[in-house]
């Protein structure tokens, strides 16, 4: 099994609307060290195209939709993110590509580590060599 999973978040809903709570080491399986968000995306643009040596993340489409391609060097799988109550957990050493963004798609990302460009693998051949 590839080191990613879709996680259904518990929704507290009533006549006023809905609420989801995210807590380190409870429904989020790591200490949250960083939060970032992606917005003003465009359908013809591709993001990602990298893997992480150490980082774990959970990505939630707060609004709109986009597709993730996930690749462990052996298999490639496609996952759509299109609900604010579903998180995509991506573990270490998974190549990701993000594409088919809807206009105005907003992604919220919870990360287990501070930003470190040295921890990215942005070359696909290097990624494949690293997991051999
Ligand atoms: C990932 C996917 C889902 C920072 O300075 N700090 C940060 O915390 C981040 C995430 C990025 N940046 C800078 C680095 C680049 O100059 O922001 C610029 C855009 O980052 P990048 O091209 O890596 O963005 P995406 O959308 O391709 O990838 C991002 C995350 O970097 C990555 O970890 O898994 O979202």
Tell me what the structure shows:
The protein has one helix at residues 124-131; strands at 4-8, 12-14, 17-19, 34-38, 47-52, 57-63, 66-71, 76-81, 86-90, 95-99, 106-111, 120-121. The model has no long low-confidence stretch (mean pLDDT 97). The chain has one domain: Jelly Rolls (Sandwich), CATH 2.60.120. It is 6% helix and 45% strand. A hairpin with a 2-residue loop joins strand 2 and strand 3 (17-19). With 132 residues, it is mostly beta strands. Strands 1-9-6-11-4 form a five-stranded antiparallel beta sheet, with no helix packed on it. The protein contains one helix and twelve strands, in the order E-E-E-E-E-E-E-E-E-E-E-E-H. The structure holds dTDP-4-keto-6-deoxyglucose. The site of dTDP-4-keto-6-deoxyglucose (T46) has 10 residues, from strand 4, strand 5 and strand 6. InterPro entries: QdtA_cupin_dom, RmlC-like_jellyroll, RmlC_Cupin_sf. It holds the Pfam family FdtA. This is WxcM-like protein. Residues 2-129 form the Sugar 3,4-ketoisomerase QdtA cupin domain.
CATH topology: Jelly Rolls
Give the distinct bound molecules: dTDP-4-keto-6-deoxyglucose
CATH superfamily: Jelly Rolls
Strand runs, count: 12
The CATH architecture can be named as Sandwich
Helix content: under 10%
- Alpha-carbon Rg, integer: 15 Å
What is the quaternary state of this protein? single chain
Strand order of the largest sheet: 1-9-6-11-4
Categorize the overall geometry: globular
Total of DSSP H or I helical runs spanning 4+ residues? 1
CATH class value: Mainly Beta
Counting structural domains, the number is: 1
Largest sheet: 5 strands, antiparallel
The overall pLDDT average reads 97
Structural class: mainly beta
Distance between the termini: 17 Å
Organism: Oxalobacter formigenes OXCC13
Pfam family, one: FdtA
Protein name: WxcM-like protein
Domain Sugar 3,4-ketoisomerase QdtA cupin: 2-129
């Amino acid at each position: 099994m590839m080191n990613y999973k879709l996680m259904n978040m518990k929704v507290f809903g009533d006549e006023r609307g809905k609420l989801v709570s995210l807590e380190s080491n409870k429904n989020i399986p790591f200490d949250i060290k960083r939060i970032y968000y992606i917005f003003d995306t465009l359908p013809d643009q591709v993001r990602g195209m990298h893997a992480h040596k150490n980082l774990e993340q959970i990505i939630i489409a707060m609004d709109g939709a986009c597709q993730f391609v996930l690749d462990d060097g052996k298999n490639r799988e496609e996952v759509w993110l299109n609900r604010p109550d579903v998180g995509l957990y991506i573990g270490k050493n998974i190549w990701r590509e993000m594409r088919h963004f809807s206009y105005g798609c907003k992604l919220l990302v919870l990360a287990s580590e501070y930003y470190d460009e040295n921890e990215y693998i942005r070359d696909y051949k290097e990624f494949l060599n690293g997991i051999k």
